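Sequence in, structure out. First:
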Amino acid sequence: MSSSAVAALTQFGEVTRAARMDDALWVLFTALASVLAHGYAHRIGHRDAQGHPGVLGVVRAVLGEWPLVLAALPATLLLFGAGRGWWRSQGIE
């Protein structure tokens, strides 16, 4: 997912340091939105007999999706580093 986001952001976008910082934020935002959506959908799919997922159940399901955010961190850190000037911003993808 992160690689696809980086490719999409880079294909027609700018590769300046500021743009790379924005790209890092978008990749992280996309991962967090995916975690929320997937965790909530998972909880709704396994709700109890009364049909109420419960707030704590939803929170646990969302927190259980931490590997998705962890998987997005390498791409986010690469873009963040390019945005900070730690390495060149062009061609890092």
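Second:
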Amino acid sequence: MRTVSNWVIGAIVATGLASCGQQGDGAAASGPQTPPPPSEAEQQAQLAALPAPYNTADLENGRRQFGLCRSCHTVVEGGPNMTGPNLHGVFGRPAASVEGYRYSDALQNAGFVWDAERLDAWLANPRTYLPGNRMTFVGLDDPKKRIDLIAYLKVESGFAPGETATPEPEAPVPADS
């Protein structure tokens, strides 16, 4: 399992190696190198470290479910905001806090921190969970698909099991359907 220090060391090494590849005529290297994606074994170790029920999720199904999100969201570190914000680091992040993304008033005033339970309720039906948000996704009815998707997001978005999130303010009460 990769830790933050492994990522930092990898980035430093990659930067050093990139500078070694510069041409004597002043041509720059191809750009900053990023660490390779986690191997399947590393992903499975990350999955196993997640709390239940996410530790038994199907990552491949979660990846397929993220296909529903991919047209609007990226999940890689440093990925761009699209129609929706980049989701890297979403767990433990206050709602409406991605730099450079323009959120609806509903999300700007939501006053909560994203966690798996909140994301599960959001994904079930974003419109009724937080009326007034601009997300056009109709929701994902199947609880197993949401578990798989959330586990995938945890593995892909830089979530570190055992980290504690910022204390949450009072949560909004979902509107009646």
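Remark: The longest helix spans residues 4-20.
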